[in-house]
Design goal:
Layout lengths: L15 H16 L6 H8 L13 H24 L5 H18 L1 H8 L10 H21 L5 H23 L13 H16 L10
Helix pairs in contact: 1-2, 1-5, 3-4, 3-5, 3-6, 4-6, 4-7, 4-8, 7-8
Length: 212
């Protein structure tokens, strides 16, 4: 007997939501999110066109689930990167490097997470929660190193550091940094050097402060 046509396969097969997410993630990593639709996802997994709607009410909800998976993976990478760091500076640098590494490995996923219909005109609240958690991680290390900073000074330093990290990751993914990288250095060394300068600037003692 021939196999049952894809459009008639039962939508409720075990772990279908996980299969749909894995297929959607693979599509985004390979092609970006713009061409992803619920119908093409159903075809990729081999279920009826209506089956995914039992798990995602529309395309936007599907994209949100993919982006949230990306934030969870980014958070896990940051936690792993900082686990062995012994100082606030090392942890801060590890956080920055982990973001750039994640961005380089997942450029299309990062676009969905930070520069997509999920973030315009305002970010989805669920994404904001993860973004605030990332900011809090940076702030914790900055406060650990410089507990006497005023709120205004801390905010300015965090903005400067985050702008450098995200800007560097974005420029690198668009290959706009390539012409300016030293010929004798490798990309990892360039990233570490750039981010080290940004971290050191963020951790610079205020004028007149006594170093701990």
């Amino acid at each position: 007997m021939s196999a049952e046509p894809a459009e008639r396969r039962p939508y409720h097969r075990e772990d279908l939501r996980r299969e749909l997410l894995e297929a959607a993630l693979a599509h985004v990593r390979d092609h970006g999110h713009h061409g992803l639709s619920v119908r093409t996802l159903a075809q990729a997994v081999g279920v009826s066109p209506g089956a995914p709607y039992h798990h995602f009410k529309d395309r936007r909800e599907l994209l949100l689930a993919i982006a949230l998976h990306g934030y969870e993976a980014l958070g896990a990478a940051a936690a792993q990167a900082t686990a062995s760091a012994s100082s606030a500076r090392e942890r801060l640098l590890a956080l920055c490097i982990s973001f750039v590494d994640f961005a380089q490995l997942n450029p299309r996923l990062l676009e969905l997470m930070y520069e997509s219909e999920l973030t315009s005109p305002t970010p989805n609240p669920a994404l904001l929660e993860h973004q605030h958690a990332g900011r809090a991680a940076l702030q914790t290390q900055l406060e650990s190193a410089l507990p006497a900073l005023s709120e205004e000074a801390r905010t300015l330093r965090l903005l400067s550091l985050w702008s450098t990290v995200y800007g560097f990751a974005s420029l690198r993914n668009k290959r706009l940094i390539d012409p300016f990288e030293p010929a004798t250095s490798n990309p990892d060394a360039v990233a570490r050097g750039t981010l080290s300068l940004a971290v050191d600037a963020a951790l610079r003692q205020p004028p007149g402060a006594v170093a701990p």
